[in-house]
Structure prediction request, 632 residues.
Amino acid sequence: MTNYVDFHRRSIDDREGFWGEQAQLVHWHEQPTQVCDYSNPPFAKWFVGGKTNLCYNAVDRHLVDRPDQNALIFVSTETEQEKIYSFRDLHAEVQRMAAILQAQGVTKGDRVLIYMPMIPEAAFAMLACVRIGAIHSVVFGGFASHSLASRIDDSQPKVIVSADAGMRGGKVVPYKHLLDEAINLADNKPARVLMVDRGLAPFAKTDGRDIDYAELRAAHMDTVVPCEWVDATHPSYTLYTSGTTGKPKGVQRDTGGYTVALAASMKHIYMGEPGETYFSTSDIGWVVGHSYIIYGPLIGGMATIMYEGLPIRPDAGIWWSLVEKYKVTVMFSAPTAVRVLKKQDPAFLTKYDLSSLKALFLAGEPLDEPTAKWISEALGKPIVDNYWQTETGWPILAICNGVESAPSKFGSPGKAVYGYDVKLIDESTGEAITEANKKGVVVVEGPLPPGCLQTVWGDDKRFVSTYWTSFPSKQMYSTFDWGVRDEDGYYFILGRTDDVINVAGHRLGTREIEESISSHPAIAEVAVVGVADQLKGQVAMAFAVLKDASRAANADDARKLEAEVMKVVDDQLGAVARPARVRFVTVLPKTRSGKVLRRAIQAVCEGRDSGDLTTMEDPAALAQIKDLVTPA
Ligand code: AMP
Prediction:
């Protein structure tokens, strides 16, 4: 077996040789002529001169060796449906969807926004887009009209693909009215809205704009849509993520680098083999869903399970019953889901035959030691934490057991993954930290490896200024996470350096939530902070100053107003962004220069010392918050 230290070293020192070899894991219509063009840092162009297609690698390529093997296994415990598509079936469905999009005038480079629940048509739509060189932009189904409108305006899609509704916990969650409202709010209206009607929620149709998927599919049953061979650097998709400002960033991914990165990760990190089954419990609206529900497993010739439902319905054994039924070998979930399961009867974990399962991978938020220990003992399988971001598209830190097996350490996502020149930087000096166990900002020295963001959609300047200017003397990509590295090279992530919070593995910008709350007419000013939570990792807490303090004069009034404010957030951003509480104060703690002391508020909410407050304008402001959050 290869020595991992050497493997990693070579990926940095001999980038051309290393990635040139990894590139042979995928199909090229035309081979690249240059592995990496980094002549214009920090913009890295991978596999220049190469022509390929993401859909070809995920679907068509497998028609020779495994046409009748399971490719997409759809399971909905909400609608009680289970449907299996072989690679041959998937190929046919993707072409039908591609033909529908083409008939609406979608061509290479056009954007298609996908706002859908976890149904097979969402996967068809993603694959159909990349098949014809269109750029998809999936928006998480839990987002509401304002979030959706800002993404429509930024991506300017020609077509939006949506559905009547999703379902969650037995309840129908209608989508169409939110979409209609978003289109009303948006300046850039799509020409067409392609609707998949699941028969769950009746919806209004806009003549000339809304078209029906089932009808059009029937008209294109046998239409052949060849793959469009695109440059390796052609964008495959954009995916919006939160940052420090209220405006979400469109992370733009290429085609060739992403295909290679995923193919290599299936081998070196996830160790999934062709013919096996991969089960990621994420959602297509998030990066894990893109990389490891859809593209990664399919590129690797694996069947992938697409699951609509909760982890505890009909009971807490549902996921493990799927592992048994479909002989899942690789499973990917988030710590929050495990914490939910931890509250259930542990007997569910021993009820099913899990002998096929090789490992459970967890990512998206810090994996706390008690949760890691519990699941590792309960399952008796290796638990592999891995750390990454929407921006990177695949892990930055992990244990690459496919290269050389190594033990995991509780609380650590592992070591720097091959391709990533990870460093810790001292925030005050900007110098790299070489000694062990010293806290710094986790950065990656450029170029970023294949598969990572190429730029921020439509805004190269923002890409550079957001991620690359923190340490101007060096081309370093900042992750905006604090971390430490121990003497064995294992990293430990200590939380964000910015105002991004992580609720149940969902990344949210506190500024977006603040902007939404501020749109309620009664609110003068608000601060939102992330506060540690046993189940969700973090929850959002809002502290608002009212224009007229008498509106929250008594507890009943305050509760009523709190519910109103929460509804505003639900309607604009979606329930996923709803704060756990909205509390009313007369003043916010600020520095003398007027900056809200969010970290001090967070510390008080978590019962910690609020640190040095000598710059604080009005100490009573923090005392007010302390009184509110301290149990009587
Ligand atoms: P997202 O872009 O939504 O995937 O969120 C990325 C952020 O989630 C990272 O910058 C981290 O703050 C956090 N994160 C992701 N994975 C892990 C992990 N394994 N351990 C700790 N934090 C993580």
